[in-house]
Design goal:
The complex is a heterodimer of chains A (390) and B (484). With 390 residues, chain A is α/β, with parallel strands linked by helices. Chain A has 21 helices and 8 strands. Chain A folds into 3 domains: 6-106, Fumarate Reductase Iron-sulfur Protein, Chain B, domain 2; 110-262, Rossmann fold (3-Layer(aba) Sandwich); 271-389, Rossmann fold (3-Layer(aba) Sandwich), CATH 3.40.50.1860. In chain A, helix 2 crosses helix 5 (43-55), helix 11 packs across helix 21 and helix 19 crosses helix 20 (359-372). The termini of chain A are far apart. Helix content of chain B is 36%, strand content 20%. Chain B has 16 helices and 18 strands. In chain B, a hairpin with a 5-residue loop joins strand 8 (171-177) and strand 9. The chains are: A alpha/beta (390), B alpha+beta (484). Chain A binds chain B through residues 1-3, 5-6, 10, 15, 18-19, 21-25, 27-29, 37-40, 45, 48-49, 55-56, 63, 65-66, 82, 84-86, 312, 317, and chain B through 17, 19, 21, 23-24, 27-28, 30-32, 34, 51, 53, 79-81, 97, 99-100, 121, 123-124, 127, 131, 142, 144-145, 264-266, 315, 319, 321-325, 327-328, 330-333, 384-386. The structure holds flavin-adenine dinucleotide (FAD).
Chain lengths: 390, 484
Amino acid sequence: MMTMDNRQLLAGLEREALVCGRCGNCRSACPVYKAVGWESASPRGKISMAKEIFAKGRQSSLTGDFARRVAQCTLCGACARDCATGIDTRSLWLELRRRLSQAGQEPQAYDSIRDNLLSRKNVSTFDNEDRLEWAQDLDEEPEHLDRQEGAEVCYFVGCVSSFFPQAAQIPLAVSQLLMKAGVDFTTLGGEEWCCGFPLLSTGFVDDAREFARHNVAMVKELGIHTLIASCASCYHVWKHDYQEGLDGYDLEILHTSEYLARLVREGRLEPQPLDEVATYHDPCDLGRNSGVFEAPREIIRSIPGVSFVELEHSRELSLCCGGGGNLQSVDPDLSAQIARFRVEEIAASGATVVVSACQQCEQMLSTAIRKAGLPIRVMDVSELLLEAVD
Amino acid sequence: MEKNEALLQIKHLFGERATDASFERALYARDLAPVPALLVDPLFRTVPDLVARPADAGEVSAVLKLASAAGIPVTPRAGASTVYFNTVPARGGIVLDLNLLRGVVELDEAKMTVTVRAATTWGELEHYLNARGLAPQSVPSSAPSASIGGWFTMMGYGIGSVKYGSLLSQVRAAEVVLPDGEIRNLTLGSDPPLDWFAASEGTLGVVTGLQIVIRRNNPMSHYLLSSPDLGEIAGVLAAVKDAGVTPYNLHFTDDACVRAMHRQGIAPDGVSGGCLLAIDYEGAPEELAAAQQTVESLVAVNSSVSLLPPEAALEEWDERYKSLKLKRSGPSELGGEVWLPVRSLLSYLADIEQLARKLRLGLCTYGHVASPERAIVMTMFFADETKVFDYIIGLSLVKKIHDVGYRHGGYPYGVGLWNTPYLGRIFTKGQLAALRARKKRLDPAGILNPGKLYGWPPLLNPLFFAVGMKCLAGIGSLRRGGDR
Ligand SMILES: Cc1cc2nc3c(=O)[nH]c(=O)nc-3n(C[C@H](O)[C@H](O)[C@H](O)COP(=O)(O)OP(=O)(O)OC[C@H]3O[C@@H](n4cnc5c(N)ncnc54)[C@H](O)[C@@H]3O)c2cc1C
């Protein structure tokens, strides 16, 4: 019901902090509060402190303790969903982090992330030119993988899938599926820069804009009109934060699950039976924060023999995996604790495989499931589909 | 025992689950009400010395034993969704943050009861039960944040109460830790009886578990009525309430409130003023069919009343836990919540309108019918807490709202600290004496949530309070250039 117009009307951290009614709906929804337990870790607690500091000018309250709490957030958006006064809390957290970085109060880890990104253009320690190294594991490398002008589809691979071997299964699966379906696709190769989300979420908004400008310029240069991303955060950023830079340029932005579901619907991919009990974990940036719930489920349901069970909290109500908002870089234990909450639900579902649509969720859940010693496979939706199509 | 020694022992016992860090304690010094430090600090010590998070009744008991021995005040706190400083210490001491006491212990579908730990929220219980085709009988409109124990120790009326009664009538048993640390299972027949703890606002014991009666999650139907004529809407409300099929929820919004919603862009499509009446039913298909006839026939005979589209009615229902949404027009809200006889609703609203004209202030009213006789009515106005002086003047106008309520047979809903000046309106002398006797018996040292419920602090005594508020209101009137 809360329209964008009246959100903008009253935009601004100061005003929003005053609008907060401290009712605590957000606190009940927050995975960080659930794990930490102190009021200062709850969204309403953080907003209360932000109100004192920014709306009431008590700068002396801008302490390291406060900065630490602000960093303890996965940006999962559950608080925004439940906010009784319609505060776009996710944007508020980003703005708070920006203020902290302006005040030089950001955690050290954020500076390391920024320095690395500015020098390498990706979140890893590898050279950005090596972006396509994962493709060497393909039996047959697609013809136009590196910056093909006018390709039907551009696959924005994302830093983690490009550089971290554990996540490489995702681009491998996506590429094989696209090839099987006969899609003419390309990537930005070494000109793909980080989507900018790690900068945005650590408060370095101007730097993030520069990354966005670069990626948009590359897409325009290649004359691309359909872009797909398998990383839920890259997708979210392209869909929401790049619009200004796109400036009306005709670009269809889809998550790989949406595009693959389309290929299945069109009969260009034909899944064969698999014997699995599958459940689906909604990544926050794809589901709650972008509204894509159906496509991954459609793919799972399209596979004969797979019996699908929902988790206790799913779709809008889905619980975070703990891996968002750069939390892992500042508080890995807290991240892991949040993943454990999710894994408890996964274990209770009786699934043999938990499917997701985000490499970060996959990594968090895999680690937690391994530590819990559970016989459950964790897969990206593209990997499951490839298994069924192969 | 020395106070510091007791605090040290609790810290030792709780480890990381207790803190005396000032950064953390500061957040326990307020609830929803942003009352300026200027008013609070000279009167009360709201920052606790220690916050402890017990994991079970045994730990609650350990804290209470040590606190009793050392005479340290203990303030229980769960959802902290109250507004009268109910969970805010008046005299420092320990805040018992109960939020680790969470989860469903046992569901008994044969007996249709569920046993929960006290800080489980209504939202969590609703989610758990709904997944099994069941539901709580009633919930507060703060369900996502309010705890089951918290609502029990408050008034316990909300959504569903008009059909199923107060929460007290649904509680079969409770585990309570008494101020001396004794852990007891209480029922209506025990000594002390369970009902002593309902509406005791954390002053008699700490509730750690409850067994409550539940219902089937029946199909529902929703209606949203609109009318420019307050009289006709009030008539429909009374008729619906007393009709053969009792509604599950009956919520009204007055014209000023609907206009404010419209300005904010959150009124139903096409509605820019007039009153709204939301009527929600749950039950068997025959009941829902009968209810539909009732509503349709009432709409037919009340010419000013129109039935809004079903989507609007559903949206109103879906937004039931977001009653703070209008606060966006503030940014702050001030107001009085009145436990009002339903029959006085019309005359109350007429007087509120007059008061609004006199003060030249937009007074918005909404509320829900809580029982066949009473409604919980909120009359509020917008304010800005950053303008401290005006905000304090605004606080004085809250008393004027309560005075209107009182003239119509109403009184404040809940006491805490800030409503203690109205104790004489809320309770008869006999009732108050009985309450004080209970307190004296169970908590002779007065360690549990002191300063609340039983008496007013010296500077809030009704006479000082009335004079003080009158002076402030007078200053406010002068600043407005005189009232009309
Ligand atoms: C938007 C909104 C809507 C609301 N709607 C309603 C409504 O429909 N009906 C209604 O009655 N109220 C309503 N309230 C007020 C409040 O939310 C309820 O009274 C709620 O039930 C309080 O629960 P809590 O867990 O937040 O309690 P808290 O605020 O934490 O505590 C309330 C009181 O109970 C004591 N207490 C808490 N837990 C325990 C325990 N386990 N044992 C002993 N003492 C305890 C505390 O010391 C305090 O005195 C509303 C508030 C808001 C903000």
